[in-house]
Amino acid sequence: MGKGGGCVPSKKKQPSGASKDPQHSTSNAPIPHDDRSDAANAATDSAATPTVISKLKIFIVFYSMYGHVESLARRMKKGVDGVDGIEAVLYRVPETLSSEVLEQMKAPPKDSAIPEITAAELVEADGVLFGFPTRYGCMAGQMKAFFDSTGQLWKEQKLAGKPAGFFVSTGTQGGGQETTAWTAITQLAHHGMLFVPIGYTFGAGMFKMDSIRGGSPYGAGVFAGDGLREASETELSLAEHQGQYMAAVVKRLAQQP
């Protein structure tokens, strides 16, 4: 038997037992060739091969000098990762202060496991959560410098339509938990991004008055105090909730036709 799928009669010698009238011969007929189209074959092969579905990505992009914003970012990642089909990626924005200045300010070293992000990489995100401490009721200069580096993306409107949210850190209760996020909305507006606040979706946790708690309808927050105060469990839970909430929004938008 040859490789072609059947026995082919020789042109020089009549096969044994073959009919003298080839038009009426039914014995020893070659096996018919499978004439399915390439498209049909490809469809069958595709059905037999499991489809790998990539996860939607939410970038958690933050600046943290003393670790308070970073603590919210890590807990927020847990919330995002808990939603099926969504994955969070932590990024830092570049530092603008020199190592000498940071040393004088007693800022701890940055975690090398969290990479710095470039403006161009934002295009790869399906949604973004930006975190930063306040400076006089507005975002810290390091985060503003990063937004200033997105000029080419603004020119081409590469971020238009992407959902985004904020989370913040302030030193005092009246230090900008709301205004820091509020004044940052202008950055999203010029890019055409969709601001996603959490509102009061955290439920009862938004109304508790028995302890000091950062956060607002604009997003999660933490009070740093003199720098020694750590985020409370309520503040961390709010951050985790924001991660889950943003993941649900991104997933819903991705399912639209």
Automatic annotation (TrEMBL):
<dbReference type="InterPro" id="IPR005025">
    <property type="entry name" value="FMN_Rdtase-like_dom"/>
</dbReference>
<comment type="similarity">
    <text>Belongs to the WrbA family.</text>
</comment>
<feature type="domain" description="Flavodoxin-like">
    <location>
        <begin position="58"/>
        <end position="246"/>
    </location>
</feature>
<protein>
    <recommendedName>
        <fullName>NAD(P)H dehydrogenase (quinone)</fullName>
        <ecNumber>1.6.5.2</ecNumber>
    </recommendedName>
</protein>
<dbReference type="InterPro" id="IPR008254">
    <property type="entry name" value="Flavodoxin/NO_synth"/>
</dbReference>
<dbReference type="GO" id="GO:0016020">
    <property type="term" value="C:membrane"/>
</dbReference>
<dbReference type="InterPro" id="IPR029039">
    <property type="entry name" value="Flavoprotein-like_sf"/>
</dbReference>
<feature type="region of interest" description="Disordered">
    <location>
        <begin position="1"/>
        <end position="46"/>
    </location>
</feature>
<dbReference type="GO" id="GO:0003955">
    <property type="term" value="F:NAD(P)H dehydrogenase (quinone) activity"/>
</dbReference>
<dbReference type="GO" id="GO:0010181">
    <property type="term" value="F:FMN binding"/>
</dbReference>
<dbReference type="InterPro" id="IPR010089">
    <property type="entry name" value="Flavoprotein_WrbA-like"/>
</dbReference>
<dbReference type="Pfam" id="PF03358">
    <property type="entry name" value="FMN_red"/>
</dbReference>
